Every structure is written in C-alpha cells, then in structure tokens.
C-alpha cells in the first residue's frame, strides 16, 4: 500500500469539493468489493485525480500504487487478473490509451484478461495542460482493438451504473470518463446496459448521437431546439463498442440528419463508428460529425474550450440549428 | 538484412527426401530421449521441494532434458523453415532446470492453481518450451508435429489462449516482468504461495518497461518473484553492449533493490542448486534476479561463433551436423 493523505487534508477536501463525481469510481468499487466481487485497483501516481485514494483507504491490501509507470501498471494488471481478481486501473486517458496502447492490446485484450481500464480526464477536459494531456484519439485507438469493449459515460451516476454492469461483463473494458465536474444527466437508478444505447428521442429533423460529456450538451441543445418547434432527438451512445447498430438505424430511418457529437477527433471516434454503420446499412439520413476537427486543441480552461469548439449546450445548438436552415 | 540472415538455406519443400529423413530421425530421437528422461509419471512435486543439492542422477536428467530441448528445437524449426535456434540453445539448461527441478508443477494439470508460474520475456524461445510442455502432458505431443502450420496453436511466440501450460503470452519484449509483478501481487493477495519465474533476454534489458517492473517488484517486496536473465551477449543487430550497453547489469539490479546472483547458465548443477536455494529462502523480502551467463547457440560450434543464427534455417547437412554435436555432447 502507499502513503495516502489524511482524509481531512486540505488537498483531499478541495478535490472532492471541486469535482464531486470523482468519488464515483472509488465509492462504486468499494460497494462492489463489499458485495464480494474480487475487485482490486491500481493507480499510477494519480490516486487523488481519479479518487482511488478512497478505495485505497478502505481496502489498502487491494490497492496497488504503481507510481509513474503506466505501461507496467497495465501489464501487471493483466498478470494479476490471471490469479482470479478483477483489476480496475486508472490514469489519464491520454497516457492509458496512447502510451499503453500496445500493453492493452497484447496483455489485456489479446490475452482476454478481465481488466477494467479507466481513462479519466479524457478529451480536452484538461484544458490548459495542453495536447500531452488531451485524449482526442482514444476512442479511435481503443475501438480498433479486438475483444475490447469501449464505454464513454456521460456523468457520475451513469459511470457508477456502468461499473456495476462491468462485474458481469466477459470482456476487458476501456472506460472513458471525464474529470468529475460533469453536469448530471441521469438519476442514480437510471437503467444501464452495456451495448444498449439510451434513446432520449428520435427526431424527424435531427437525431443527435452523443457520448460522454457531449450528452449533457446535446440534451440542452435538443430541448432548446424542440422548444422552438423543431423535431430533434438524442441517442446517448455510451457504449461505442459494441455499437448499438439498431439504435443508429432507428434514427437513420426516421431522421433527415444524424449529428454525432463527441469530445474527440471526428476521425475514427463515435462519428466514425456511426458512419460505418450508415455506410453499410444504408438509410436516408445525412451524417454530420461534430467534435474536434482533426486538429490539436488550443490552450484554455476547459469550459472556454468547450465554448470555443462548440461542445457546450449553446455550441451544439448552433451547430444543429445551422443544419436546420 | 540481418533479420533474415541464413548461413545456408535449406530445401523448403516439405516433400523433399532430405526433409522426410531428417524428420523421421528426429522423431525417433525424441522417443528415445523421452525414454531416458525418467520423470516420474504422475509426480506432483519435483525433487527440489525436498531441499538440498541435486543428485548426480538428477543432474544427468537435467542435461538430458536440455539435449531434448535442443533436438526438438531443430526438428520443429525444420517444419517452420525459420526459427530462433541460438536463442533457445542459450537457455536450454534454464528450461530443463526450471521445469524438471525447480518449479512446482503437476504433470497433465497446466491450470493447477498452486503451480509455480513461468513467463518468458524472450518469447521467441518458445520453440524450446513447447516440447517440454508436451512432455509434461499439458497437451498432446502430436501438436508439435504441426508446429506453425495453418491453425496450429504453436507459433513462434507462446500464446496462453491457445497453448496449455503457457502462463502468459509473450512476443512483445519488455512486458513479461510486469506480468510477473502482477502475478506475484495477485498470488500474495489470494494467499497462494506460488513462485513466479520470469526468463528475460539480455537485449530485453534495453526496454524501459523492464525497469519500471524492477522498481515495482522491489517497492512491493515481491519475494516470490524471480527474474532470470539469459545473458548470452547477443541480440539481432550485434553484441548487446555494442548495440545499447546494459552493463554493469548486476549493479543495476542491485541498485533497483533486487537480490542478485550470478551463475553459469549451462551448468545444471550450479543452476539447480542456486534455484533451490532461492526458492527455499523464505526470509528474503526482495525479489531476486539471477544473471545466467550463457553462450548464444550453445552446443553447436558454428552457431556459437556466428550471432546471425538468432534467426535462421538449417540446410539438411547442417541440421545433421547440429544433431551430431548435440548427441555428441551427451558422451
């Protein structure tokens, strides 16, 4: 076990105050461990950033601090899994999905070990930390790895539900989550099933298909546009792999336009996955992909970046409105 | 192109007379070798668990099993038409000592939870491991005859999803010690007392992840974790220390917090006694690194002097010479 901050330390209090849903990971893993699941966890010098310090405090023997050795953490998690435990290892999505890509493919996915990889602070949510800390490629990379499930949750309650669902999931999973500031979309008891999209509505004009933090923005946009008399729907495609093709096609058959929204490069991510389905299955809808347009993000606080890249509620509304003209 | 340096290229037609003769000879030899082995059928524990130094009889068995590994390696590579001869020959005694003396394993039970684990950083030496796994009844011996053929579970690198007895897949150099760290952590958490042996190449010392794992192993006091470095001195592009210097290797491991031993990796008596001692030392709180000084291509004179045999294919006449040298070494 590692040295952990006193629960009353200013640092711990401050982190939890600023990012309340950061506690979701640790709280849910504690719940699962107490229910008898063989949960273990690991961090790579970011136990405060991902909240795993809470798990470490409750189950010190089940927590491993790997230090700044992300690749070692992923490979070791795969080794641990062979002994009958279910490891949840977490670090910044940029390092997990990009730096550890090969360890994830070889040791976790190809070896079919039940490792749960938690890539947090994904997309451009680390704002002015810059490109090294941004992950706008992780969906594209992770979904091209065979036998790996890819899940991008919208908020704390949905992430908790996904973690609960993960204990019975046969494949390794890459979770893509934000930084704990996520505005809440779902109630704690909202139904969740891996591989089954949450359909908030199918619009005659537009159906937005979104994942992660973009779900909240898209919901705001949908409500605003429907208030103006348009017919806009929303599908929360929390599981990007395996993709809910039926949900995509339900939208494609009814809507004039499908608009994908993601905090990710529009190449290869959610938009790419939806494009593949539409190209193969047909359907009359035109596809527009919204997100990071194959570029490296500017530097700014996250909320400023979301505004700049039209990923906040008003931004998504503007994009959708322009398609309705 | 060094990666595919063939000193002599053999006839690649599987139907060639030379190929069939060699193939049959090696099958005969395999049977003879198995007969000599004398590994007790159904034995649950190998002799090392009784403690002490190995007997002359046990040493003879280990030498014989190392010859078996070399002969089978030649036979299997003759099927694939290309393979890592010399990488296996440097660690043939390490294979035989681990599997027939050191490790706690049960014949025919590759998934026995209490077994000691064996991982390979140098997965390209799997062609020398497969015959042992078959010999231990982890899978049917006939699998070997289709080595690398379409759909075979047995390829150039060991695959845990396909090959019973492979404790973790390998092929991407640098991962295995981390996998071993995880197994040792998991074993401790699950209150299992198995040991984890990880065979690393010396060229592998150039991979950064090895040293991440070394830090982890020492930090978490993984006393059940044993790394064995096959220090044969060569890698594909030349001498290890010319390509990217790894010396002083022992000092490095010591500085990373590991207990370090140095041994002649071809001396089965020294190797087996050291491994028995390491395994029996329950007071050790550190992981252990054994630097096994070896010779790349050991046992075949023209391979010992030519590092290009890291990857190659023996023409039938060279194959016959190699087999003679291996069998001659038994005298």
CATH architecture of the largest domain in chain A: 3-Layer(aba) Sandwich
Mean pLDDT of chain A: 95
The count of helical stretches of chain A stands at 13
Oligomerization: heterodimer
Q: Most extensive chain contact?
A: A-B, 30 and 27 residues
Number of strands of chain B: 7
Q: Give the SSE string of chain A.
A: HHEHEHEHHEHEHEEEHEEHEHEHH
Task: Give the number of domains of chain B.
Answer: 1
Superfamily at the CATH H level of chain B?
A: Thiamin diphosphate (ThDP)-binding fold, Pyr/PP domains
Summarize the structure in words.
- The complex is a heterodimer of chains A (325) and B (331).
- With 325 residues, chain A is of the alpha/beta class.
- Chain A folds into 2 domains: 10-176, Thiamin diphosphate (ThDP)-binding fold, Pyr/PP domains (Rossmann fold, 3-Layer(aba) Sandwich), CATH 3.40.50; 198-324, Rossmann fold, CATH 3.40.50.
- Chain A has 13 helices and 12 strands.
- Chain A has helices spanning 10-18, 23-34, 53-58, 70-81, 93-99, 101-110, 138-143, 156-166, 214-227, 245-254, 270-281, 302-308, 313-324, and strands spanning 39-43, 63-65, 86-92, 116-120, 149-152, 173-176, 198-201, 206-210, 232-236, 239-241, 257-265, 286-292.
- In chain A, the strands form 2 sheets. A 7-stranded mixed sheet of chain A has the order 2-1-3-4-6-5-10, sandwiched between helices. A 5-stranded mixed sheet of chain A has the order 7-9-8-11-12, with helices on both faces.
- In chain A, α10 (245-254) crosses α11.
- The radius of gyration of chain A is 19 Å and the shape is globular.
- Chain A starts with 9 loop residues before the first helix and ends with a helix.
- The mean pLDDT of chain A is 95.
- Chain B is an alpha/beta fold.
- Chain B has a single domain (2-328), classed as Rossmann fold (3-Layer(aba) Sandwich), CATH 3.40.50.
- Chain B has helices spanning 17-37, 56-80, 85-89, 92-102, 126-135, 142-145, 176-189, 208-219, 240-243, 249-255, 268-280, 301-304, 316-328; strands at residues 117-120, 196-201, 225-231, 234-235, 238-239, 259-264, 288-293.
- A 5-stranded parallel sheet of chain B has the order 1-2-3-7-6, with helices on both faces.
- In chain B, β4 (234-235) and β5 (238-239) form a beta hairpin.
- In chain B, α7 packs parallel to α8 (208-219).
- Mean pLDDT of chain B is 87; it is low at 1-45.
- Chains A and B meet through α4 and α6 of A and α7 and α8 of B.
- Chain A: Keywords: Thiamine pyrophosphate.
- Chain A: Belongs to the transketolase family.
């Amino acid at each position: 076990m590692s040295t952990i901050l006193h629960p009353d330390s200013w640092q711990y209090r401050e982190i939890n105050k600023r990012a309340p849903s950061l506690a979701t990971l640790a709280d849910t893993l504690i719940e699962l461990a107490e229910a008898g699941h063989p949960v273990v966890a690991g961090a790579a010098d970011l136990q405060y950033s991902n909240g795993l310090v809470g798990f470490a405090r409750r189950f010190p023997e089940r927590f491993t601090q790997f230090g700044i050795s992300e690749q070692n953490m992923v490979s070791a998690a795969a080794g641990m899994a062979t002994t009958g435990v279910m490891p949840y290892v977490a670090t910044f999505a940029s390092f997990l999905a990009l730096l550890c890509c090969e360890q994830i493919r070889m040791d976790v996915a190809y070896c079919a070990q039940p490792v749960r990889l938690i890539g947090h602070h994904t997309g451009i949510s680390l704002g002015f930390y810059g490109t090294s800390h941004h992950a706008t490629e992780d969906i594209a990379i992770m979904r091209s790895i065979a036998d790996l499930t890819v899940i991008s949750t919208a908020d704390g309650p949905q992430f908790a539900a996904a973690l609960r669902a993960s204990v019975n999931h046969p494949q390794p999973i890459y979770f893509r989550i934000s930084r704990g500031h996520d505005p809440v979309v779902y109630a704690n008891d909202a139904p969740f099933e891996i591989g089954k999209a949450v359909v908030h509505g199918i619009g005659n004009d537009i159906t937005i298909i979104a994942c992660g933090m973009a779900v909240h923005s898209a919901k705001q946009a949908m409500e605003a546009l429907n208030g103006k008399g348009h017919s806009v729907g929303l599908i929360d495609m929390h599981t990007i792999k395996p993709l809910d093709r039926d949900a995509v096609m339900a939208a494609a058959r009814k809507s004039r336009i499908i608009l994908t929204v993601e905090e990710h490069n529009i190449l290869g991510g959610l938009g790419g996955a939806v494009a593949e389905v539409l190209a193969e299955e047909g359907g009359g809808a035109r596809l527009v992909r919204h997100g990071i347009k194959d570029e490296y993000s500017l530097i700014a606080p996250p909320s400023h970046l979301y505004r700049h890249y039209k990923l906040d509620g008003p931004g998504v509304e503007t994009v959708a409105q322009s398609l309705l003209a | 192109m060094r990666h595919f340096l063939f000193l002599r290229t053999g006839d690649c037609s599987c139907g060639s007379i030379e190929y069939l003769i060699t193939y049959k000879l090696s099958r005969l030899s395999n049977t003879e070798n198995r007969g000599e082995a004398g590994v007790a059928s159904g034995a649950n524990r190998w002799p090392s668990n009784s403690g002490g130094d190995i007997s002359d009889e046990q040493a003879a068995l280990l030498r014989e099993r190392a010859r078996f590994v070399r002969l089978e390696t030649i036979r299997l590579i003759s099927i694939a038409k290309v393979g890592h001869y010399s990488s296996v020959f440097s660690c043939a005694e390490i294979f035989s000592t681990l599997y027939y003396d050191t490790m706690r394993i049960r014949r025919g039970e590759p998934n026995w939870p209490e077994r000691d684990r064996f991982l390979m950083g140098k997965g390209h030496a799997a062609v020398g491991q497969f015959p042992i796994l078959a010999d231990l009844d982890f899978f049917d011996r006939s699998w070997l005859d289709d080595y690398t053929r379409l759909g075979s579970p047995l390829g150039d690198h060991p695959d845990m999803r396909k090959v019973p007895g492979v404790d973790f897949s390998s092929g991407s150099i640098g991962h295995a010690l981390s996998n071993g760290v995880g197994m040792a952590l998991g074993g401790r958490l699950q209150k299992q007392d198995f040991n984890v042996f990880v065979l690393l190449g010396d060229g592998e010392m150039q991979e950064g992840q090895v040293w991440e794992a070394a830090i982890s192993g020492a930090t978490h006091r993984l006393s059940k974790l044993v790394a064995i470095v096959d220090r044969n001195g060569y890698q594909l592009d030349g001498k290890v220390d010319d390509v990217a210097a790894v010396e002083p290797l022992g000092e490095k491991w010591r500085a990373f917090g590991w207990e370090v031993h140095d041994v002649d990796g071809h001396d089965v008596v020294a190797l087996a006694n050291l491994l028995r001692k390491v395994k029996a030392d329950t007071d050790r709180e550190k992981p252990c690194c054994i630097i096994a000084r070896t010779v790349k291509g050991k046992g075949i004179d023209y391979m010992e002097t030519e590092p290009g045999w890291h990857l190659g294919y023996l023409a039938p006449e060279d194959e016959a010479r190699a087999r003679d040298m291996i069998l001659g070494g038994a005298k």
